[in-house]
Amino acid sequence: MNALSEFSHKLQQATLKATDMPTILRIVHEYSSLQVIYHSIVEPSLFIADTLDSSDSSGSSSFNETLEQFGSTIDSLPGSARRRLKVTLPDGRNVLSQPIVGLGQVLSYIGLVLPPQNQQIVSEIYIALLLEYASKTAEQILLRKLFLDDRSSDGYSRLIQDILFGEVSHEDQMLAQIGLPALSDGKYLFVSGIVVLERPEYSDEHQSVKMLNQDVVMLLRSLLSTHGIYNLLLLHHNVIHLLCIRETFANTEAQWEKVKQALRKVIELLKKSNRLRPGNNLQLHAGFGHMKTRLRDAAQSYREALDVVSVTRLLARTSMSAFYEDMGIYQMLKSIGNTSQLIQFVQYHLGSLLAHDQQNDTPLLQTLDQYLSCMGAKQETAEKLFIHRQTLYHRLDKLKELLGSNYLNAERRLCLEVAIRAYDLVKDEMNESTSGEGLAH
């Protein structure tokens, strides 16, 4: 008990003097004499072992391997298992781990690598208490850093609005306002994005909703920073507007691929957050424009991001990419702007088919879409639709009757494929306008 009291006092002193996690982890190592693993989604992970840690250039590569093993094991656990628990690494070692919770989200884990049973000097209960005390101190430090980061960004609200809406008159002056130094050799990459926090059932507790959104913003900011992306964020109601910045001194396209990988990981981690679980009625839709090399072009990237979110929310497909460059034909369809023109195009090429499906409750549109996607391969189409081949033949005969015998000719087929994608975007408006009326070819 004396050791625990001394340990707790030392943690309190460390919290007053320092705001970095390595100090806390070294104290844990000092009082446990065990290897300490720190796995985090909001800052760099660490490994403390005797005199070396993973941030030390002289440390063994086995430290990084242990960090990866621990992180992968922890990340594979279901959300309900995120409590203090003993995990077994792939190499057979056991780690007693304690979650660090903040903003309703598990931000990090502290773990102690347990020695073999025949070499264990201190009890597991003592180790668990050390982890309990350390996690509370670590939580204070992490939350302090998150709130400091959030407060320091308040002055950027007007700045990010000017950038995203194209009001950049003097690029060098704007870069200086952001706090970016001039680069003599390299250059900056700018990517605009938007994150929509959507609740199927809007909560009446307005204050709690606002606090929840602010928590998500702070978590997002920390995740972006941890993955090496400088960012400006602006929360307005349930929408987060963001500008991501990365400097590059090498191949621009290669750097952009790294940024995309980082953004994918950030969104994946954000979606796994406790704040975004189904019980909270909160869904996330994210979109990013294409990379730009000038700040003044960030507004174009922002418009592209808006198109991405607009499409992903309409389609509700989990596999849909969050990046504008991966939208394919939807880039062109969204750029048309005139919805009535899209509806006319859909009506002309798919009107008879849509009318038949509506009147007879048949899935001919789905069949046509899958048949074209399978390049006319009947067996594959039947398997993808989970129907017998004979059923598919009957549907194909009906398609030929409704669309004409030439519907697979190159030009006609292209129009049908575009019309199907366009219908994804305008079907709600078409259904409203044709309520109670038949669809004419």
UniProtKB/TrEMBL annotation:
<feature type="domain" description="PucR C-terminal helix-turn-helix">
    <location>
        <begin position="364"/>
        <end position="422"/>
    </location>
</feature>
<dbReference type="Pfam" id="PF13556">
    <property type="entry name" value="HTH_30"/>
</dbReference>
<dbReference type="InterPro" id="IPR025736">
    <property type="entry name" value="PucR_C-HTH_dom"/>
</dbReference>
<dbReference type="InterPro" id="IPR051448">
    <property type="entry name" value="CdaR-like_regulators"/>
</dbReference>
<protein>
    <recommendedName>
        <fullName>PucR C-terminal helix-turn-helix domain-containing protein</fullName>
    </recommendedName>
</protein>
<dbReference type="InterPro" id="IPR042070">
    <property type="entry name" value="PucR_C-HTH_sf"/>
</dbReference>
